[in-house]
Amino acid sequence: MLTSLSIKNYALIDDLQARFNPGFTIITGETGAGKSIVLGALSLIIGKRADLSSLKDDEQKCVIEAVFDIANYNLKPIFEQEDLDYDKQTIIRREILPSGKSRAFVNDTPVTLSSLQVLGERLIDIHSQHQTLQLTDDAFQFQVIDALAETEQPLVNYKQHLKVFKSDQKALQKLLDFQSEANKEYEYNAFLLQELLDAKLVEGELESLEEEYETLDNIEAIKEKLVASHQLLNDEQIGALAILTEVKNNFNKIASFSSHYKELYSRVDSSLIELYDIFADVEASEDALDADPNRLEVVNTRLQLLHNLLKKHLANNVTELIAIKNTLEDKVSVTENLDKNITELQAKIAEKETVLNQIAGDIHHKRVEVIPDLKQQLEVYLADLGMPNAQFQIELETSKTFYANGKDDLQFLFSANKGGTFKPLNKAASGGELSRIMLAIKAVLSKYIQLPTIMFDEIDTGVSGEISNKMGVIMRNMSSNMQVFAITHLPQVAAKGNTHLKVYKEDVNQITTTNLIALTEEERVLEIAQMLGGLEVSSSALAHAKQLLN
Question: What is the strand order of the sheet 406-415 is part of?
């Protein structure tokens, strides 16, 4: 509920501070006193766009702040959704700067207008005779039906299953689209894969083959150099082995004379051992070296295959080719398993559809059961509001489509007169009738769900004294479950309030300002008497006012 409101530098308001009580609050005042200004300020609190022309002093900023007690509103999910700090005493502030910039805050956290609107519509419902389009809105009509049908938990369950159902449907469509494209590429990918599988790729093979090819392709030159090296090492007269053996023997003879010569002998001996190893390797290489044209052809053919594959797949080495082969294996495997995956997902969707149909059927049954009661309550309220022949025809039909709130198509049809044709509300009722219908619907809703604070703005315009009396009773009864405000010109309505506020204008230093005060019991009698008979209050008007209040 709205507990307090502060308005500074807005329209004709210089600085207004007001506290509000639970129950039914009446707001009265002469035409032009500024009741619409208070409503305008509240509209800013719930997300209406700001206008620079609203500033009273265009050199100072405008600040509007409202405090709400939301302990019983179950709004924590909304605060989490909008990433706001939850507090049972929530403060909403709007600021309009002289530059024209507007800012909004919830519990001192800056918010966007869209976030403020999401929260605001759960806090205040400002209703005037011209704001009845909501009646023809499907979501609102379902809210009415579902309040009586107590479908909150089944709807939560339904929405959870629907979310999974739609997600699976999207996944299935994605698979089907992928299958369509994959089938076009499957044969080509399978061909490329088989080509790489047939190649039996081995990491490092390319380098090894290139080395073998160079050896086989230059075998004569290699053999010539090996023979020459063999002779230079093993010649009896000038061979390196013979010469180094002689050097070794010379140092052996003098090694005992000095540690230096002994070291030289050891080094020559080590070199001779290494040279004998080299000679053995040269001899083995010479013996192993045989021209093999067939092997050369095999190696050359294998190298050409690998180089062709590298070029075809734009790869730098065999390792990259193996990676490409693995990718192709995945693609081919996925394509080959698509049918199985699609079948499994289709079965899952069919199962979920069965569950959704069961839940939607239960919701439909609950709704159907409460329609007669809703129809009767609305018609009773409208009879009290001067529409004794008003009738509703509420049509609820099962659709083939899964909507966000079930599988029902809902339509409220209305006839204001006996024997009249039932038509949609916006075609069958006048503005005044729509206003009374909305009051009747809100009165019914207030019995079943926690509604936000509601502000009725001259909803009683154009109705008779007796009807306004019953309208006031309805609003007072609603206030037992919620906070209700009524801006009214009718004394019969004003007398029904628990609290009475008056909006008035006054001139201070030749500047007109709007103020709001709470009336005492005596002031209230006078205000209602003036509403009955004008500024010149008669004793009969005072007596009538007291009678209305009692």
Answer: 391-403, 406-415, 423-424
Give the position of tokens 């080299």: 278
Is-contact 190 381, C-beta < 8 A?
no
Separation of CA 47 from chain center: 20
Closest CA to 150 of 310, 369, 391: 369
Pick from 269, 262, 230: which is nearest to 247 by CA?
269
Only one residue has tokens 């004793």, namely 539
- Tell me the pairing of strands 406-415 and 391-403: antiparallel
φ/ψ of residue 210, rounded to 5: -65, -40
pLDDT (tens place) for every residue of the chain, 550 residues total: 999 999 999 988 889 999 999 999 999 988 777 788 888 899 999 988 887 778 888 889 999 999 999 988 888 989 998 889 899 999 999 999 988 889 999 999 999 999 999 999 889 988 865 556 677 778 888 989 999 999 999 999 999 999 999 999 999 998 888 877 777 776 777 788 888 888 888 888 888 887 767 766 777 777 777 677 777 777 766 778 777 787 788 888 888 888 888 888 889 888 888 888 888 887 777 666 666 677 778 878 888 888 888 888 888 888 888 899 898 887 777 766 778 888 999 999 999 999 999 999 999 999 999 999 999 999 999 998 888 999 999 999 999 999 999 999 999 999 988 878 898 887 877 777 888 888 899 999 888 888 889 999 888 777 777 888 899 999 999 999 899 999 998 999 999 999 999 998 888 777 888 899 999 999 999 999 998 888 788 888 899 999 988 8
Find out whether 182 and 296 touch, Cβ atoms under 8 Å.
no
Q: Position 107: which residue type?
A: N
Candidates 345, 322, 329; CA nearest to 167 is 345
Q: Which residue in this structure is represented by tokens 């005492």? A: 520
In angstroms, what is the C-alpha Rg of the chain?
47
Q: Give me the amino acid identity at 119.
A: L
φ and ψ of 239, to 5 deg: -65, 145
CA–CA separation, 541 and 253 (whole Å)? 152
| 454 close to 424: Cβ distance less than 8 angstroms | no
N-to-C CA span, the chain: 27
The beta strand positions in 278-424, using DSSP E, are 391-403, 406-415, 423-424
219 and 291 Cβ atoms separated by less than 8 Å: yes
Residue 5 vs residues 18, 495, 512: alpha-carbon distances, Å: 5, 23, 21
Going by C-alpha positions, the residue among 420, 424, 454 that lies closest to residue 439 is: 454
Burial 420-439 (b: 16+ CB within 10 A, else e): eeeeebeebbeebbbbbbbb
**Per-residue tokens: 247:** 């050097």
In sequence order, the 6+-apart residues with CB closer than 8 A to the CB of 439 are: 381, 385, 456, 459, 471, 474, 475
Name the H helices within 200-317. 205-217, 219-234, 240-254, 259-288, 293-312
Please report, to the nearest 10 degrees, the dihedral formed by the alpha carbons of residues 478, 7, 131, 504 taken in order: 80
Q: What is the DSSP letter of 100?
A: S
Distance in angstroms (rounded) separating the CA atoms of residues 457 and 384: 20
